[in-house]
Amino acid sequence: MAESIFTKIIKREIPADIVFEDDDIIAINDINPQAPVHILIIPKKEIATLNDLNENDANLIGKIILVAKNLANQKGIAEDGYRLLVNCNKNAGQTVFHIHFHLLGGRVFGWPPG
Ligand code: AMP
To answer: Tell me, what CATH number does 84's domain have?
Structure first.
């Protein structure tokens, strides 16, 4: 897999607005936000899509969801609610092939999604 833009951010080869980081995960503000809060939560491990996950990644994905919950609290969107989503491949509009969870909040979202 070619080095993704998110790996370049993890390696500090390009800048980003980092809001959380530990040994396994980085979270950054989306460069093109779709809501007042739009954070990308990204595993440092290069996994292209949801389809490429395996059993060994279960703990990592659980940790990402906990990071999302904590960031939602920090950003003050937990009580009103928020959306946590992953786009997989072309029908969902995935553009960066390095798994990332979108944490979106600060406005009302429609359902079903467009
Ligand atoms: P997806 O369509 O799910 O693959 O989402 C990719 C997301 O990455 C989009 O919301 C982009 O705005 C965002 N993005 C792309 N490049 C950057 C960057 N350099 N820094 C922050 N967010 C980015």
So the answer is: 3.30.428.10
